[in-house]
Amino acid sequence: MPKNETTLKFSVLAGDYIGPEVMRSALRVLEKVAAQEGLKLDYSEHAVGGCAIDAHGTALPEATLTACEAADAILFGSVGGPKWESLPPKEQPERAALLPLRKHFTLFANIRPGLLYPELREASPLKNERIPEGIDIVCIRELTGGIYFGQPKRTTLLNGGTDVESVDTMIYRKSEIERITEVAITAARSRKRRLCSVDKANVLETSVLWRKTVSDYVAANAPDIELSHMLVDNAAMQLVRDPGQFDVFVTENMFGDILSDEMAVICGSLGMLSSASLGARKNTLGLPYGLYEPAGGTAPDIAGKGIANPCAQILSGALMLRYSFGLEDAATRIERAVREVVASGTRTGDIAFGRTAVGTEQMTEKILGAL
Ligand SMILES: NC(=O)C1=CN([C@@H]2O[C@H](COP(=O)(O)OP(=O)(O)OC[C@H]3O[C@@H](n4cnc5c(N)ncnc54)[C@H](O)[C@@H]3O)[C@@H](O)[C@H]2O)C=CC1
Ligand SMILES: CC(C)CC(=O)C(=O)O
Ligand SMILES: [Mg+2]
């Protein structure tokens, strides 16, 4: 019986290698939930990344951007891989499609839930006594600033070409740090009200500003939040030593990129880690416009074999329902279905750990069955 008249208008950008494989699974799950909830899906698929370079000569075609502009959210796969690594760096899919997309829509807040179900503890490389109840951490990563975007960014030949110099620039403004701190405060308030800010304030000017800004902002706006600070090298170590000490952590772009992959593997696999990238922009429903993507990449080593774990992409679809369409119940149902299937022992190879592994298709069928 239809419960809802909402139309979900989103753009699907599957990308390269395993991108289209796991995107198929996510779309099947969304179709089923939509049918059950009486929602109307209005999505269209568009070229992005290496496959867009092959088909259209550019990683982010104008038509793709126009379609994203007209939608309420973007469901993204992942882009890049060996096929395009010999292109000039600026033309490669990651730098020519994904980063510009994030910048274009000012998606400055990347929310990555690091969740290890207790039933999946065996898939974590951590000793199980360190994670008696699994893991439940949220990484809030600044996504449109820092060293990935700062100018100058260049490579120059020196000494008549006998040497080469490359420069990347890390820049942060107080206003950029304040707005990501606000997102982190909101996340912490919905959980244990504990926030750890990760930086490198013993060396980097941007981190000195980061630490002072986060401290001042929390003191002025969120005295209910228990704030701590940690240097990033220590944070990398503490994450594997005792992940239970973290609840929400907030950090700049590159540190968050690295720490979230670490968080993914202690949570079993990159194939389980979803993400939401949000900004100030609202969609036509008055809700946050967002881009939803797995935290991992295109996994060229397993592409085309039908063995990729679809969970991160499916869970990214759930985050899209939650944040951009306000469908908390539907999002939770998808998350429960994934958990139920994984907990019952159906596992793709990356999380199988001694069990018989199923492929992408069978994993998806099981999740559909649990919905
Ligand atoms: N958002 C994006 O579009 C991203 C793109 N990339 C790009 O992806 C390409 C490959 O990057 P890598 O460093 O190899 O990282 P990756 O994240 O693609 O893979 C790292 C390891 O995790 C495994 N893995 C990742 N997702 C999986 C899944 N769903 N199921 C099972 N196993 C999974 C892979 O098989 C691989 O062994 C590069 O071109 C990179 O730039 C990387 C990260 C994010
Ligand atoms: C192009 C990269 C910055 C993508 C990535 O590694 C990520 O977003 O985690
Ligand atoms: Mg990454």
Automatic annotation (TrEMBL):
Keywords linked to the UniProt accession: Amino-acid biosynthesis, Branched-chain amino acid biosynthesis, Cytoplasm, Leucine biosynthesis, Magnesium, Manganese, Metal-binding, NAD, Oxidoreductase
Source organism, top-level taxon: Bacteria
Enzyme Commission number(s) of this protein: 1.1.1.85
Quaternary organization: Homodimer.
Root EC class: oxidoreductase
Main location: cytoplasm
GO biological process, one term: L-leucine biosynthetic process
One CC-aspect GO term: cytosol
Protein known as: 3-isopropylmalate dehydrogenase
Residues that coordinate or bind NAD(+): 81-94
Binding-site residues, substrate: 102, 112, 141, 233
Family: Belongs to the isocitrate and isopropylmalate dehydrogenases family. LeuB type 1 subfamily.
Function: Catalyzes the oxidation of 3-carboxy-2-hydroxy-4-methylpentanoate (3-isopropylmalate) to 3-carboxy-4-methyl-2-oxopentanoate. The product decarboxylates to 4-methyl-2 oxopentanoate.
Chain positions of site Important for catalysis: 148, 200
Cofactors: Mg(2+); Mn(2+)
Isopropylmalate dehydrogenase-like domain mapped to chain residues: 9-367
Substrates-to-products reaction catalysed: (2R,3S)-3-isopropylmalate + NAD(+) = 4-methyl-2-oxopentanoate + CO2 + NADH
GO molecular function, a single term: 3-isopropylmalate dehydrogenase activity
Binding site for Mg(2+): 233, 257, 261
PROSITE patterns, per database record: IDH_IMDH
HAMAP family found in the cross-reference section: LeuB_type1
Cofactor notes: Binds 1 Mg(2+) or Mn(2+) ion per subunit.
Pathway terms, separated by semicolons: Amino-acid biosynthesis; L-leucine biosynthesis; L-leucine from 3-methyl-2-oxobutanoate: step 3/4
Classification of source organism: Bacteria, Pseudomonadati, Verrucomicrobiota, Opitutia, Opitutales
Compartment(s) where it occurs, according to its Swiss-Prot or TrEMBL record: Cytoplasm
